[in-house]
Amino acid sequence: VYNECIYFIKKFAPESLLGFYFKHKQYQKACTLAVESKSTAHIEALTKACVQHKMEDFLVDFFKLELSKNGENKEVILELMSHAIQVVSEIKCYSLAYHLQMLNSRGTLAAVLALRTFKECDTKEDAEFWLQNTMEQILNVSGKEQHESFGSLGIECGDLGIANLLEMRSIVGLQIDVIKFAEKQGTDFKSWDVVGSNDMIAFHRRRCAELLLLRDGNLAFRLIQEFRLQAPEVYIDAIRLFCKNKKQIGSLIPLVKDLKGTLGDLEWDHVIGSAFFMLLNECNDRSRAKQMMKLLVSDHSKILAQIALGKLEKAFELAKSCADDVDVELIMR
Question: What would the DSSP string read from start to end of 73-117?
Fold first, then answer.
């Protein structure tokens, strides 16, 4: 009966033969049919069927076997496999696309596919595995090619927010370290994903920098520099987050002191002034507010802090010693 079915399908509905083979678990015959037809339409149908029936490994093994034959059809096989990679990429089966690509060549495209696979991971273990794979593929590429834009290589990466392999190397290295930190904190790695160009990823980057700043300053600075975040605003929000935890607020002043020199005087006073008023008004912590005031640089900022503390005489004396008529007038009001 089976052979009769094959005969009638071939004669009256040949386009249904591949589906028939899959239905009856004749995967080898289905793959052979698609390759021998040399049809991209058949390859597309085959690839989607393999994904649907969870036969991705079989598809990879089949192409691997065909390529090992080194026959006259090798170039055709490579073209068909390239189309299969395109198909699975379009349906976001990036791990399958990666394994197929690895049968042909390592390097740039393999690195991009590995990074895309990371973006689809559901577990921290898988995420770490694919980040390491990405880095390995990047390191396989020559220095010259690492500088070439993905656009010039015909690779679309706009949604990843990465222009070339050199930039990818820096961001992937940063992402690896960020996930290690997240693991120590026992938090969900998904909220520490900093690869991409959408608003959610932008939020993740800012939030990660804020959470890291007073715990791992070097890593926070790398985030700020890599993604050109507004450092003063990150500092202010990081201090605000830190202050919300009463158990850790005791170590705030020493940690903030360690940040000295990372900003210009004007930006530094903006951050310290915000922290001062936060401690004074939101936390009702007058003692630490006074300690924070000592970190201010400009006399004008110190005068404003003294006024807020009700120390009008000290504020007036400081303003007079600076010959600052504007501050003197402010105090007199």
Answer: THHHHHHHHHHHHHHHHHTT-HHHHHHHHHHH--SHHHHHHHHHH
Exposure letters 58-95 (e unless 16+ CB within 10 A, then b): ebbebbeebbeeeeebeeebbebbbbbbebbbeeebbb
- Among residues 35, 38, 36, the alpha carbon closest in space to that of 50 is found at 35
| 243-276 residues labelled b (16+ CB within 10 A) or e (exposed) | beeeeeeeebeebbeebeebbeeeebbbbbbbbb
Q: Are 295 and 283 in contact (CB under 8 A)?
A: no
Find all residues with CB under 8 Å of 222, minimum gap 6, and list them.
Answer: 174, 177
- What is the chain's pLDDT, residue by residue, as a tens digit (333 residues)? 678 888 888 888 888 888 888 888 898 998 998 888 888 998 999 999 999 999 999 999 999 999 998 777 889 999 999 999 999 999 999 999 999 999 998 889 999 999 999 999 999 999 999 999 999 999 989 878 888 999 888 898 889 999 999 999 999 999 999 999 998 887 888 999 999 999 999 999 999 999 999 899 999 999 999 999 999 999 999 999 998 888 888 889 999 999 988 999 999 999 999 999 999 999 999 999 999 999 999 988 998 899 899 898 888 788 777 755 555 566 665
Give the closest residue to 140 by CA, choosing from 176, 105, 98, 94.
105
Q: State how far the alpha carbon of 155 is from the alpha carbons of 108, 151, 190, 215, 257, in Å.
A: 9, 6, 25, 38, 45
Local structure of 124: helix, strand or coil: helix
332: how many CB neighbours lie within 10 A of its CB? 9
> Which residue matches tokens 């940040």?
259
What is the token pair recorded at 126? 């898988």
